[in-house]
Each structure stands twice: as C-alpha cells, then as structure tokens.
Design goal:
Largest sheet: 8 strands, mixed
Structural class: alpha+beta
CATH architecture of the largest domain: 3-Layer(aba) Sandwich
Helix content: 25-40%
Number of strands: 22
CATH class of the largest domain: Alpha Beta
Number of helices: 16
Strand content: 25-35%
Length: 454
C-alpha cells in the first residue's frame, strides 16, 4: 500500500485503540445496520468499524478499468447473438439459453456488474465478473454512512480528506435510464425487486424497498415464483403492476423454478415490463467468459484499449478440459500441467456463486487437488482453471468479546458499475483464501483518501 494509506491506517488504529470504549463504536454500528434492515440471513451482518482506504491517486485507474470492462462484457455478450458459432463458448445450459433469448428493450444487456479484484500498491487483477445481479450496494451505503458518523472516523477526518461513493443513487439512475430507453414515460414508475425464494441477502432487498419508498416510489419485493400474468397485466400478490423490475438473486434461483416463473417470463417476452439486469446478463456472469476473452480470435475483435485491459488486468484463464494450450508463451498439456502444479492455480465452477467449490491450489492437499482435477476436467465437470493471484492481507479491527484486537485478514475489493459507470465498491474479508460473506467473511465499504488537510 502507498505511504499515505499506511499512515491513514496507522492513525485510525491509534484513534480506535485510544477510544474509551471501542466496543461501543461497534455496537452503535451494528445497531444502525439492523435498524436499517441491513442484516444477513437470520443474523447480524459481519461488520468492521474501519472502512477500507484506497489512495485517491489509484481511483482513476480503478474507474477506467471498471468502465472498460463493462464495455467489454457488453461486446462479448452481443457476439452470442450475432454469431451462431460462438454460442458453444458460453457453456449455457438449455434453461439459461431459453432465458437469454428474452428481448431486453434497451441498449446494452449488461447494466449491472460487480468486478471482484485483488489490489495492492503494485497490482490490480480482476479475478471474477459478477454480472448476474450482485448484492451489497445497500449494505455498503448504510455502513459507510454510519462509519462516517462514528467518533474515530470524525477524529481521523480532522487530518485527512476522505470520500466515498453513494451506490444506491446510481442504481436508481440506471433503472430509470433503462426504463426510458425501453419506452417508459412515468415520472415515478412502479419498481419491484424480484429474486428467487430465500437467500442470505434477502434482507437487503427489503432495505432497498424501504429506501425507494422514501424517494416517493411505489415499491415492493416479489419472489420470482409469486407473479401473476393475465390479460397482458403482470401483477404482484398485492395487485401492483410494475413498470421496472430490479432483478436480484443468482440466475440459478430462477432456473430451479422454471415452471413457477412462467408468468414473469411471458410478461418479459411480451414487453410488458422493463427488467435490469436482464436474464441474458448471465452471458457475462458465467466464469468461462474470462477464457473466451483470452482466445486469440476473440481478443482481436476488441479495440487496442480493450485488449490492453484484458491482457494486463485479467489473470490467465482457460476452460478446464483435455487440451493443449498456450500459457504465458509456452504450450502445455492443460490437465497434466495443472495437476502437477497446484500452487499456481485455482479451479472454479463455471456457474456457481458464493465461493461454492472454488479450489485454491496452494491451500489444498496434493491428494485432494488431484481428486478435484479429475472431477473438474471436462466433460465430467464445467470448471475454469485460473492463475492464482497473490491474496492481499490487511489488519482489521475485530472483537473477542468486548476486547479490541487487530487481526490480519485476506481481502478482495469489489467494484460496482451501473449503466456503464463506476459507482463505488465494498471489500470482503476472510481467514480463508476463498473470500465470501456466504462463507463467514466480513465486509466494509471502500473510501478514498485524497490527501492530508492543510
């Protein structure tokens, strides 16, 4: 990290450790999150009282790469529809194919993405695109607001100029822009969030609904299986007719209920409602897209700027199958090389989320790695293999009972883009190399430090 960020982190730690009751700071934050509906599953959201600080000098690179990657995702998604021969590269299931064929009604199929990355002073690697319908924006906005009100943060801001992005306003901008392009004309259209039944982030849906109502929108949450469609009218169980659906939840939750989601699918096909992200965004959410982008015949379809971002900021990735391929200038037998060099690689299922079945070679025994290689190699499995990227660590404040300690945690940074514009991000942490809130990790908002006050 830069000297500025080292100094900020040191000063925040000193301020917090010298606070008369650090645990009270945490309690206030936790209560504020709960009061705003920002919980996780049936329990409290795993939180930190310290944000993740990024040197403001890094933000132009982060914004630029995030927005270029958004363009790249839209271009690769459109290729699926323009070139029949390209469809096999996306590894869509028959159900995903059916949903991807639903018309969108506005420009750009990928409106929402969260690009997960590892960031250090010398490195920025995007390791995964979440273009399905990523969680966390409301959590980040609320947690960031509460941290800014905390005594340690107020004290820190006497020395430093610190800012953050407001994500929910950008989501609303994106939804209304899609609605206008789709043909909608209402000043305050009805907005529904729809996701599969259950899910750990379901409380966030209701927190967003409450926020939308405060903005004077008529808003509801409706499970994907609870819609009614008759006589050209899509309605909620309460009788509301939505103009916009903000889609949340993993595409797999929709696919598991193909019969029950027929009402909303028919309404979308008939053009009766605008939805973002569209179901076709699964094209960029599928982890095989990294491997597609790195194919020489595909890479040449992009601009020089886009090619540069793909080459510099995406780790080497291949669909894990029995083949020979190029790796950093050398031809390798893919399954043989990967099985013999576990510390260099990570295996990821193409179509899962929440860190499920992600296998990090250096954290896996030799015997287990060989078993996973055998299981993951196509045609048995649908996995990618990716170069392992060094995982950054940072000391974060945790509490053992009411006692404050700073513990090293593995972290990744997660940058949001809505409607092609960078909109901020969150940081997730874990003791495990597979970093995910679903696996017991914590989260905190990103804030950027522009310098020391004069």
């Amino acid at each position: 990290m830069s000297r500025l960020i080292e100094q900020v982190n040191t000063d925040f730690r000193r301020i917090l450790e010298n606070h008369p009751n650090p645990y009270r700071v945490y309690q206030t934050l936790s209560k504020g999150m709960s009061d705003n509906g920002c919980t996780f599953g049936s329990g409290p959201m795993p939180l930190y009282v310290k944000p993740y600080f990024i040197d403001g000098a890094r933000m132009p690179e982060i914004r630029w790469t995030t927005e270029v990657l958004m363009r790249i995702m839209n271009k690769i998604s459109e290729m699926y529809y323009r070139d029949e021969s390209s469809k096999a590269m996306f590894y869509l299931s028959p159900q995903e194919t059916e949903l991807a064929d639903i018309p969108v009604g506005y420009h750009n199929r990928i409106q929402i993405t969260r690009n997960d990355a590892f960031l250090t002073e010398d490195m920025l690697y995007y390791i995964e695109f979440n273009a399905d319908s990523p969680g966390g924006p409301m959590y980040s906005d609320v947690q960031g607001h509460l941290i800014q009100q905390s005594e340690p943060f107020v004290e820190l801001c006497k020395t430093y100029t610190i800012g953050r992005d407001l994500i929910m306003w950008q989501i609303l901008r994106m939804l209304l822009t899609c609605y206008r392009e789709w043909g909608g004309t209402k000043e305050f259209p009805n907005i529904c969030i729809s996701a599969g039944p259950g899910g750990g982030t379901a409380p966030e849906f209701h927190a967003i609904i409450a926020w939308l109502k405060r903005m004077n929108f008529n808003a509801e949450f409706v499970a994907t299986t609870d819609w009614t469609y008759a006589n050209g009218r899509l309605t909620t169980p309460e009788g509301m007719e939505p103009d916009i659906i903000y889609r949340r939840g993993w595409i797999g939750d929709w696919i598991e209920h193909m019969e029950e989601i027929k009402p909303i699918v028919r309404a979308l096909r008939d053009g009766k409602v605008c939805m973002a992200n569209p179901l076709s965004s699964t094209l960029a959410a599928n982890k095989s897209v990294f491997a597609v982008l790195q194919r020489p015949e595909i890479l040449k379809l992009f601009t020089e700027e886009e090619q540069g971002v793909i080459r510099k900021y995406l780790p080497w990735t291949r669909v894990f199958e029995k083949t020979k391929t190029d790796r950093h200038g050398a031809m390798i037998d893919l399954p043989d090389y990967v099985s013999k060099n576990k510390d260099l690689f990570v295996l990821k299922p193409i179509d899962q989320y929440g860190g499920k079945d992600v296998i990090v070679g250096f954290a896996t025994s030799d015997s287990d790695w060989l078993l996973w290689c055998d299981k993951a190699c196509a045609p048995k499995g649908k996995f990618i293999v990716q170069d392992a990227v060094p995982i950054p660590e940072e000391a974060l404040p945790i509490f053992e009972g009411e006692k404050l300690i700073f513990a090293k945690k593995k972290i990744n940074v997660n940058f949001y883009s809505y409607g092609g514009i960078y909109t901020g991000g969150v940081v997730r942490s874990s003791d495990s190399p597979v970093i995910n809130v679903h696996k017991g990790g914590g989260m905190t908002p990103i804030m950027f430090v522009d310098g020391i006050r004069k």
